[in-house]
Design a protein that fits this description.
The protein is of the alpha+beta class. It has a single domain, classed as Muramoyl-pentapeptide Carboxypeptidase, domain 2, CATH 3.30.1380. Helix content is 48%, strand content 19%. It contains five helices and four strands, in the order αααββααββ. It has a four-stranded antiparallel β-sheet, covered by helices on one side. α1 packs parallel to α4. It is globular. 24% of the residues are buried.
Length: 161
């Protein structure tokens, strides 16, 4: 039997199940703390594996964006719009249905690459991310548009911890 790469749809189902269960069984603050700690652990593993030592925010985020692309998770564009402000776009995501369903149902949305980047910024740069609304930003969850064509955009402001 031929071994294949882990299917994105299976990953969607599995992540959906985990985060729906956490959202249903635990207080929201506990679920969010699990997400934060999980992201810290995952970043530590990626950092060891990849030798990540960047301490400048944009260089660190660009490095992680390349890693996520190389892993087949998503194509990412990170655009600085100020010394501590950036816009981020993601396309061709592996996890599509999971975040959409969890968000529509009011559950915690894992957003793995977001949260791993946030953990990296905290550890490497002493920064936290403050997400901001994108002016005129449309929801990526568009009816009639296949999930692999969705574009996720975010606007982050970085602040010292």
């Amino acid at each position: 039997m031929k071994m294949q790469v882990w299917n994105g749809q299976f990953a969607n189902h599995y992540m959906y199940g985990i985060w729906r269960a956490i959202s249903e069984m635990l207080p929201r603050e506990t679920g969010e703390a699990i997400l934060e700690r999980t992201s810290e652990i995952v970043f530590d593993e990626i950092q060891k594996e990849q030798g990540i030592n960047e301490t400048e925010p944009m260089a660190l985020l660009q490095r992680l964006a390349r890693y996520f692309e190389d892993m087949g998770y998503a194509e990412e564009t990170i655009e600085p719009i100020g010394p501590y402000e950036l816009k981020r776009s993601m396309t061709n995501l592996t996890l599509t249905d999971c975040p959409a369903k969890l968000g529509k149902e009011g559950h915690i949305i894992p957003g793995p690459s977001h949260h791993i980047m946030w953990a990296a910024l905290k550890k490497q740069c002493g920064l936290k991310v403050v997400p901001k609304p994108i002016p005129g930003g449309a929801s990526p969850y568009q009816e009639g548009v296949p999930p692999h064509k969705w574009v996720f955009r975010s606007h982050w402001v970085l602040e010292k911890i």
